[in-house]
Amino acid sequence: MTDDAPIRPRLVLATTLLPEGPDGVERLRVALEAGDVASVLIDPAGHSAAAFQDFCEAVVPMVQDAGAAAIVVEDTRCAGRVKADGFHAPEGTIEALGEAMARFSPRLIVGTSGFNTRHDALEAGERMPDYVLFGKLGADGEAEPHRRNLDLAEWWASIVEIPCIVQGGGDLATLPQAIATGAEFILLSRAIFGQAEGVAERVAEANRLFDEAVAAEAA
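User: That's the sequence. What structure does it adopt?
Assistant: Structure tokens below.
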């Protein structure tokens, strides 16, 4: 950020908790139809290679049709096969990030995560990824977001031009803590997909809280 203009964050969803098969695809469809979603991180955790390929083939076109970016996590071959919009490099590895940038950028969005100090985050930033995520997929089991992630996102958003994503907590009631960092994007998984019912309502509520925060800051 380079000025004091209010930033309305946008929602990023992670598929970590979604089940394989039609039920998981349907829950994601409901989420995408319920409100603004900037992108979806499609997480291979808990999937076999074949099942993850099938899941990506089902959801990538759906995500793209909804106007969001479909970003495949870690699996480079799958990202290419399903014509994803982006690739999320393995956690905390400068070498892997550099390889991903050389291979995919600027054809695909390339992002990264797992850099837990300012020094390491800036070193990752020198590779010029499209975004840096402060948080770890699947690590949102607590209601509140991790304080380290909030602190890093607030620092980064105040001095670095590269956008950041901050991981929110597992409960929407704590979303204002993530909003307050000034991060351009907020990642939610458990807070949206933690229960099978009510996915649409929770996406709508997240966007309402984003709008409310911007309106309050502008007032």
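The radius of gyration is 16 Å.
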